[in-house]
Each structure stands twice: as structure tokens, then as C-alpha cells.
Amino acid sequence: MAATAMFPLETVLFPYTPLALRVFEERYLKMLGAALESHQPSFGVVLIERGSEAGGGDTRFHTGTMARIVEVAATERDIELLVVGGERIEVGAWWNDEAYPTAEVHTIAELTWDPALAPLRAEAEKHVRRVLTRAALSSGSRWDPNIEISDDPLESSWQLAAIAPLGPIDQLELLRSSSLAGLLARLIDLTLEAEQILTATFDGGRDDGEPGLTA
């Protein structure tokens, strides 16, 4: 089995979701050069468990996503990429970090859509957008609460997981989902937990008579 180029990040990449990256470290510039020589330029993305993106020596989780390169732009100091998440992967073994990280990976089966899940998906979107709006007002957010998502129910389910205001460990749990029903149900639970934290952090302990934030 051929080695797959890997890019460990402090970010979880979800299927069908875009991610902007800035490449400046020599080993990842080499990785990018090799990837761009292939017919379908891509590399694997996994979440860093301990350590940082730069410098090496990090410990990584084994569940990740293939990143398909869709845009490349060079600046004076680095290369800017836009990738889109593809199939989910599981790292079987890390091979070599000498030039850049490589691994043996196996594809995780795609989740399947069932029309009976439509009410659950709609409920998930309602909660995610509401709590995302609250997060944007209180602490800022990477995603616009009104961002458009795919009309495809499977794709949009993953995109809702991506835009929900959750931490990377919660996101990794969602990425590991074994069913779409499980993904959507857990997404709702985690989003409501995040809302409780936002309420406690930004609405709790007020003694100035001012109303708290509202969605």
C-alpha cells in the first residue's frame, strides 16, 4: 500500500467542508509539491492530540479526512491553499516523518442518508444556527450563522457538524460517527451543551441589571 501524505493540524476537517490553509514549513512545502504532481492532488488531515503544527514531534489522533486541493496561491512568504474535505480515513500506521509525515490509511465507509432523518436534520440545523448566532455575538465565530450549506442532506449534515461552535475534541467525536442518525443526534446534544456554556459564561453573574444576550 502506498504511503499517503499527511498534514496534522489543530483543526478537524469534515467531509464536504472547505478549509483555508497557509503552508510555510519546508516539509509541508515538499509535501504540497509532491501532491500537486498527482492527478487528483490531495493529502490526509488528522487532528493533533499533543504538540503544535510547526516543528514536528507532535502526537496525532488516527481518524481524519482526505483533503482535496481546489485552489493554490503563492505569496512572498508562503503558499495559501483551499481544500475541501473528502472521504474519512483511519491511520493504520505512521510510516515516516523524515521529509514530511506519511501514513498507511484506510477509508472509512461513507454514511448513508435515510429520508426518515429529515426532521432530525432540520432540528440539528435549527439548533446549530441559533447557537452559532449566539457564539458570534458573544465570543466571535469562524462561520457566519447565515452561511449557505449544501442542498444535499448528507453533505449538509457534515457541514452542520463543521460550523457548530464546538471544540476540536467534540468535532472529532462527530467525525467518528458510525451512522448519520448518530451524527445528527450527537450534534444536537453537543450544540445544546455549548449553548449552556455560553449562557453561563456570558449571561451568568450579571449584577448590572442589563439583559443577557439573546439569540
Tags for this model:
disordered C terminus, 6 strands, five-stranded mixed beta barrel, 215 residues, 28% strand, Archaeosine Trna-guanine Transglycosylase, Chain: A, domain 4
List the SSEs and their pairings.
Layout lengths: L3 E6 L8 E6 L2 H11 L5 E9 L8 E16 L4 E18 L5 E6 L10 H21 L14 H11 L4 H8 L4 H23 L13
Parallel strand pairs: 1-3
Antiparallel strand pairs: 1-6, 2-5, 3-4, 4-5, 5-6
Helix pairs in contact: 2-3, 2-5, 3-5
Radius of gyration: 19 Å
The side-by-side strand order for the widest beta sheet comes to: 1-3-4-5-6
Helix-strand sequence: EEHEEEEHHHH
End-to-end C-alpha gap:
50 Å
Low-confidence stretches: 205-215
Helix content: 25-40%
Q: Helix- and strand-based class?
A: alpha+beta
Organism: Microbacterium commune
Domain Lon N-terminal: 1-195
InterPro entries: Lon_prtase_N, Lon_prtase_N_sf, PUA-like_sf
Protein name: LON peptidase substrate-binding domain-containing protein
Structural write-up:
By secondary structure, this protein is α+β, with helices and mostly antiparallel strands. The protein folds into 2 domains: 4-107, Roll (Archaeosine Trna-guanine Transglycosylase, Chain: A, domain 4); 115-202, no CATH class. Helix content is 34%, strand content 28%. A hairpin with a 5-residue loop joins β5 (79-96) and β6 (102-107). α2 packs parallel to α3 (153-163). The radius of gyration is 19 Å and the shape is globular. The N and C termini lie far apart (50 Å). Mean pLDDT is 88; it is low at 205-215. Residues 1-195 form the Lon N-terminal domain. InterPro entries: Lon_prtase_N, Lon_prtase_N_sf, PUA-like_sf. This is LON peptidase substrate-binding domain-containing protein.
